[in-house]
Specification:
The structure is a single chain. With 292 residues, this protein is α+β, with helices and mostly antiparallel strands. The protein folds into 2 domains: 6-153, Fructose-1,6-Bisphosphatase, subunit A, domain 1 (Fructose-1,6-Bisphosphatase, Chain A, domain 1, 2-Layer Sandwich), CATH 3.30.540.10; 163-291, D-Maltodextrin-Binding Protein, domain 2 (3-Layer(aba) Sandwich), CATH 3.40.190.80. The chain has helices at 6-28, 48-64, 80-83, 98-103, 178-186, 200-206, 221-233, 269-291; strands at 38-39, 45-46, 70-72, 88-96, 109-116, 119-126, 133-137, 141-145, 152-153, 163-168, 190-195, 212-215, 237-240, 259-262. A hairpin with a 2-residue loop joins strand 5 and strand 6 (119-126). Helix 1 (6-28) packs antiparallel against helix 2 (48-64) and helix 5 packs antiparallel against helix 8. It is globular and about 50 Å long. The protein starts with 5 loop residues before the first helix and ends with a helix. Its cofactor is Mg(2+). Substrate binds at residues 73, 95-98, 223. InterPro entries: CysQ (IPR006240), CysQ/Inositol_MonoPase (IPR050725), Inositol_monophosphatase-like (IPR000760), Inositol_monophosphatase_CS (IPR020550).
Amino acid sequence: MVLEHPSRMARELGRICRDASAAIMKVYNQPQQQWDVKTKADDSPVTAADLGAHKVIMRGLSQMMPRLPVLSEESANVAWSARSQWGRYWLVDPLDGTREFLDRNDEFTINIAMIEHGQPLFGMVHVPVTGVTYYGGRSCGSYRQGLEGEPERLEVRSLRLPQIDVVASHRHGNEQIQPLLDAMQQQGMNVARRQIGSSLKLCMIAEGQADFYPRIGPTCEWDTAAAQAVIEGAGGKVLDLNFKTLAYNQKDSLMNAWFMVLGDLHHPWQNWLTPALEQLRLDEQEAAEADS
């Protein structure tokens, strides 16, 4: 999979993200009682900022590539019979980290990915509060663009053993990831954990600020696709618990498998983690059966 004209793609998606960011920040800067917070059927929150950004992105993508389908968190009711026929499409989370938005901790992002044959071809993650943009893909490399200056090439860092810096969610699965951290500590690793919201966890690994992100709990495909493209362009991987690359649009459900994000791939992660993963695979299977 090779992306045609990645620089043009970055420019056009960057413009769409900035427009969506303006819609989000207009709401964010208002008093919270004006945010029009509602609860969706899956018990997750949605705000006027989510919906405003969704409208901006849908309009921008339809102008950019009118024939390419779009699957967004805020318009995800596309039948599997239809989207199973898609070869290439957009996958969008207009506001990743709505709970971070509600907490006013600034750790929320806009995620836009182009998917081709089940894999992220290109992704962009934009941070509305700072204006920083992460973008790229496996075939074109990944970059970080601030408000000023030239884009900086991203590259995962080499592990500085015995130190391993882990990023984790503020809210989800922190008890469940402990067996993985324990497995590394039992082999002499010094594991430090930092909690952060949204796709920023993956971007931290892509820019060499962390090494490992295990997600043992529910996520949807739009939560990860854009940042997965950035990770892959920086030299890392997003893998399920069987060490297979996370894939998209492979089934009716839009829920991801439990996964791990690895930076430096030149180390025996599988050997380090296998003792803990065996039980986690069983736990994942039981969780899937309970939800079915």
